[in-house]
Amino acid sequence: MVLLRLFIGWHFLYEGIIKLYNPDWTSFGYLASAQGPFRSFFIWMTGDSIMGMADWGNKIALVFVGLTLLLGIFEKWGAIVAALLLALYYLAHPSFPWVAQVNVEGSYWFVNKNLIELVACLVVYQIPTSHYFGLQRLFHKKETLSHAN
Amino acid sequence: MKFTRRDALKGLGGIPLMGAVWWAGAASSVAKKKERSAILEQLNIQPSLPSAVPGIGGEPIRVGVIGFGIRGEQLCRALGFATEEWKEKMRMAAKEDPKHTALSDFESQDKLNVHLAGICDIFDYRANKALKSFNTPDNKMERFRTHQEMIRSGKVDAVVIATPDHWHAPMAIDALENDIHVYVEKPMTHNVSETYRLRDVAMNSKAVLQVGHQHRQTLSFQTAKDIVHKGTIGHVSLIQTNTNRNDDNGAWMYEIHPDASPQTIDWDMFLGSAPKIPFNKNHFFRWRKWWAYGSGLSGDLLSHDYDRLNCVLNMGIPNSVMTSGGIYTHRDGRNVPDVLQVNMEYPNFSTGSSQPKGKEKGMTFVYSATLGNGFSRPTILMGHDGTLELGNELTIWPDGRSTRYADMIESGKMNPEVPIYQYNPGASTPDGVASATSQYFADKGLMWTYINGARVDSTFLHLREWLSTTRNGGKVSCGVKEGFEEAISSHMAGLSYKLGRRIEWDPEQGKLKPIEGIDFDEALLASL
């Protein structure tokens, strides 16, 4: 479980950092090419006033998830944010057989990598491990000690 | 409270991991950025800024519009006048699709100091349509039955000519001889001899002539000029430019209006210099399909592509042209070809060379067109050091065997499959383009340009430049020199198709090299 949590954190942090250090990065293409039932919502996000916020929101959320899961602190929050992000990614390009697959890699039928990682995040949420490996262990210990006193 | 070594390891174990991932991500991004900026520094390309145009002061310029068809209406919108019908249609379109920004683009367009004073259209419905929307208390507008009447009325300072091709030169010449400013749609002329005549008249007139190649305002083309000038792609030996359309509108099958009849259309006026035939709606609305009134692919669409490149390279009139083609996809009675291949030779032209002096010289410009397939083939300039794809966006790939970039390619800093430069002035602006034909023009950078990320109609900029020049003096981007080069090159292509032989230009005489027994005008406009 610790490994699962670390790997997900690793993945999110790297994605976030790459985007953070690349001033030209934008999710415009991914959103503008969105398919499926929520297409209009994602297209709305590409509006001039929203686009910048959406890009920054995504970068910050990615780094936040990466830090919480890797460091092992507020991991439940991290897992929830990660699941929400993945749900958005999934819904922008859902792997429904009747929806055109644009801007995606691999071949899927309903279940794709985003969905699997999303479920993994739910597992991380359900089975927290930061009290065993992570900063939380130090706080956790402090708490149990103070309770003992 | 006591922490063991195990606690410390397991509690803080994530920190080095985080550091490693952060470092790896940042290092990879920064390294890529550094490599890019090293390449960009070497290329030293300056994206162009819009040129400043002095404002139009004083009394509004009185403009008369000749021809209120598809293009005439577009030109009026660029001047700031849209019909109520169009506004309503665009309102509905925007309601259905919030991305449809035609109406808001129009409304946010800067206002020009223009009084739309006259309309001249030989189809009553169209003239009345213009009057209905534009003849208001703020803008008194009058209908003129003929262009001669409008030009001599003393009520217009300038005319916009958006008629079938065979009327372009006669109207432009008449206006310029009366010192009325002219904005004429492309192609500038319909045959060879009137091209010579219009050049002479324009050079002797006090009035300003602008030919309607609005893409000369497109910023990406001005940037492309800088790219080629700096030798970024080396010696260009081949240019490939194309037309691919596969829809009725793109093949000039325009709608026939139900009100059209000999009573509502001045048919003799329409025919002008064309062979006399009885009233024919098909010819009136779909005139682009016959040599008598239009210019086929060579004058209608090659002229765009030719001028796009002439704007970037300033290569002028080719030494010779060879064309072939036929009517292969729309055998509907038209006599202009719908598949056309044009090869223009420039044996003495060079864009500069990175190789030993004298090794490289000469270029072929290829125009390849079909109205039976819509696959989008880009315009590419093929140089010894790189390839430039030209449109509203620009992309440059280094060539694997480039002399200039040999070191960078060998050291892996450049890869022939990865562009070294991309210019996309509208990157954050989504575009809603209505039809296949509009998309065709938009991809080529013929419809609009981007200024500070905002989409601007290039026709508006082109008209504004013309109007400003009529008031403030200066030079227009597509004057008689550019128009002459465009018209002659297009006519050479058309003539070569018609005659099945090479057509040559004599730069010393400033004329086509004569061919014994051939009258160029007759040959070009012949119906077969």
Automatic annotation (TrEMBL), chain B:
<dbReference type="InterPro" id="IPR036291">
    <property type="entry name" value="NAD(P)-bd_dom_sf"/>
</dbReference>
<feature type="domain" description="Gfo/Idh/MocA-like oxidoreductase N-terminal">
    <location>
        <begin position="61"/>
        <end position="213"/>
    </location>
</feature>
<dbReference type="InterPro" id="IPR000683">
    <property type="entry name" value="Gfo/Idh/MocA-like_OxRdtase_N"/>
</dbReference>
<dbReference type="InterPro" id="IPR050463">
    <property type="entry name" value="Gfo/Idh/MocA_oxidrdct_glycsds"/>
</dbReference>
<dbReference type="InterPro" id="IPR004104">
    <property type="entry name" value="Gfo/Idh/MocA-like_OxRdtase_C"/>
</dbReference>
<dbReference type="Pfam" id="PF02894">
    <property type="entry name" value="GFO_IDH_MocA_C"/>
</dbReference>
<feature type="domain" description="Gfo/Idh/MocA-like oxidoreductase C-terminal">
    <location>
        <begin position="281"/>
        <end position="389"/>
    </location>
</feature>
<protein>
    <submittedName>
        <fullName>Gfo/Idh/MocA family oxidoreductase</fullName>
    </submittedName>
</protein>
<dbReference type="Pfam" id="PF01408">
    <property type="entry name" value="GFO_IDH_MocA"/>
</dbReference>
